[in-house]
Amino acid sequence: MSVHKEIKRITTHTLQEFKESGIKISMLTSYDFSMARIVDSAGIDVILVGDSASNVMAGHETTLPITLDQMIYHASAVVRGVSRALVVVDLPFGSYQGNSKSALDSAIRIMKEAGAHAVKLEGGAEIKESVERILTAGIPVMGHLGLTPQSIYKFGTYTVRAKEEAEAQKLMEDAQLLESIGCFAVVLEKIPATLAEKVSKKLHIPTIGIGAGSGTDGQVLVLHDMLGITKEFKPRFLRRYLNLYDEIQNGVKQYVDDVKSRNFPNKDEQY
Fold it and tell me: Measured between alpha carbons, how far is 32 from 40 in angstroms, rounded to an integer?
């Protein structure tokens, strides 16, 4: 725990130091001020304003519908609640693929309007130009390989990626490419643990895993999943630390009962 006390602000440089000294990196998502403040005060290293907001905040089936404006709204709320963690924001689907100029414009808007510290993009060689262009503006970029949810319709399923030799080879090459062009870290999602460990050992920059085993340099989960606010999502890699769905539901039920039975407010709760 001493590590947490010494560091006033986590930077991309801090994460590099963590990797070099074997300290694991903790990362969670947040999408609003109140939650971000709690998560930050608990000592998390990195907060990801994920495009998973499309699922957990807006109720969409995939991450594709969320817009850049909506990501900026969530990110600015999170930034206002954070004093220690590094805040990384997902560039949403359609805001960077195939056009490096619009990728740069999107990243600049996130940094300027939300006050974020870095952006995250999904993909390898195919988004090289966009990553390079964003980096020329001095904006830190986190990569994301393996299961890339924005490509769900290409893959057709959220199953484990890179089990075949050819895909594993491409993932290793993409990871090295992202490092060579200047990404400060890479998320590895739902790939075999042995491959994730191999990639982590090969790279000088930190890797953050989700469903990628314990051999990565850090871990990330979606906040609503690990707190048990979501119920249906039950992948093998998810550990639920609380069961807030039932707790919140019970609290609301009690409130409803208290209002209906005239128990709330009581004499002490009025002026």
Answer: 12
- pLDDT digit string, tens, across residues 249-261: 999 999 999 999 9
Alpha-carbon span 98 to 114, nearest angstrom: 24
* Residue-level pLDDT at 6: 72
CB 128 within 8 A of CB 182: no
For residue 15, the one-letter residue type is L
> φ, ψ for residue 218 (rounded to 5)?
-165, 180
Q: Which two tokens stand for residue 142?
A: 């986190």
Q: For residue range 141-192, what is the model confidence (pLDDT) as tens digits? A: 999 999 999 998 998 889 899 999 999 999 999 999 999 999 999 999 999 9
* pTM for the whole structure: 0.96
Given a contact cutoff of 8 angstroms between Cβ atoms, the answer to whether 174 and 151 are in contact is no
For every residue of the chain, which 3-state class applies, written as one string? CHHHHHCCCCCHHHHHHHHHCCCCEEEEECCCHHHHHHHHHCCCCEEEECCCHHHHCCCCCCCCCCCHHHHHHHHHHHHHCCCCCEEEEECCCCCCCCCHHHHHHHHHHHHHHHCCCEEECCECHHHHHHHHHHHHCCCCEEEEEECCHHHHHHHCCCCCCCCCHHHHHHHHHHHHHHHHHCCCEEEEECCCHHHHHHHHHHCCCCEEEECCCCCCCEEEECHHHHCCCCCCCCCCCCCCCCCHHHHHHHHHHHHHHHHHCCCCCCHHHCC
Whole-angstrom distance, CA of residue 69 vs CA of residue 176: 32
CA angle 205, 211, 215 (to 5 degrees): 45
Q: For residue 47, what are its two tokens?
A: 């907060």
Positions marked catalytic: 189
